[in-house]
Amino acid sequence: MQTGFHHAFHHHSHAKRSGKTAGILRLIDSSAYLMGAISVAVNVPQLIAVWTSPSIAGVSIISWIGFLTGSVFWFAYGLLHHEKPITVINAGLIIIQALIVLGLAVR
Question: CATH topology for 33-105?
Answer without folding.
Answer: Monooxygenase (1.20.1280)
